[in-house]
Amino acid sequence: MPTSHSNQPRRALLLTGASRGIGHATVKRFSAAGWRVITCSRHAFPENCPWEMGPEDHIQVDLADPEGTRAAIAEIKQRLENGELHALVNNAAISPKTEGGRRLSSIDTTVEVWDHVFRVNFFAPIMLARGLLEELRAAKGSVVNVTSIAGSRVHPFAGTAYATSKAALASLTREMASDFGPLGIRVNAIAPGEIDTAILSPGTEKIVEQIPLHRLGTPDEVAKIIYVLCTDAASYVNGAEIHINGGQHV
Q1: Does residue 190 come out as left (phi exceeding 0), alpha (psi in the -120 to 50 range) or beta?
Q2: How large is the C-alpha radius of gyration of the chain?
Q3: What sign does the dihedral 94-95-99-105 (CA atoms) show?
Q4: 226-236 residue pLDDT tens
Q5: Given Cys at both, which of 28, 66, 158, 195 links 217, Cβ 3.0 to 4.6 Å?
Q6: pLDDT value of position 87
Q7: Active site includes 162?
Q8: What count of other Cβ atoms lies within 10 Å of the Cβ of residue 67?
Q9: Strand partners, 187
Q10: 101's torsion region: left (phi>0), alpha (psi -120 to 50) or beta?
Q11: What pLDDT shows up at residue 198?
Q12: Distance between CA atoms of 109 and 96, rounded to whole angstroms?
């Protein structure tokens, strides 16, 4: 689906963690608007989420592995038309639990788990943004980091490594907005609260009672805001962290 200027290639989005939940909804939202979507995840192209050019524009990569991430960046560069990347959405994240499914506290979390979580949730976003800096600059592109309500308050289900990685990513978003802004690249974050996805924990209904809107959010309600941040509607928004949680943080 071409843009309004028929001689220009479609706008391109690189999205990590595309196979479910917020990532899945984001693919559908951008695809519907005519964007080309390049996806990255640990999994092969998901059969249950077909979108145009899906398998050809999916890169299987373990973002916990810096060498694998560098190889993926090189492959992405080759796939981009005109060397332009219009949006990077850092959505992939991991949140390990105990064997019984409980949150890992700061006492229980091993250094190995902390290291693994930070590689995926924190280091991969800056590696991708730095590695694709010229492509983002050429398109005057936008970066959206997906943080979390758990990054600013202790959460009953999100473990310590996940929460601290998201707090670090929120801080990194400000630093990137300052550093990338002069290059014409906007960097923002969205911080979802309780969104109705496969990773919700039992007991979520107790949290919902305390949310002013008295309901879970939907993945599409998050994807819509991600989309706005990547378009001209948000052309002067830089360094923001937008809370998408029905008022849970107030």
Answers
A1: beta
A2: 17
A3: positive
A4: 999 999 999 99
A5: 195
A6: 98
A7: yes
A8: 8
A9: 143
A10: left
A11: 66
A12: 9
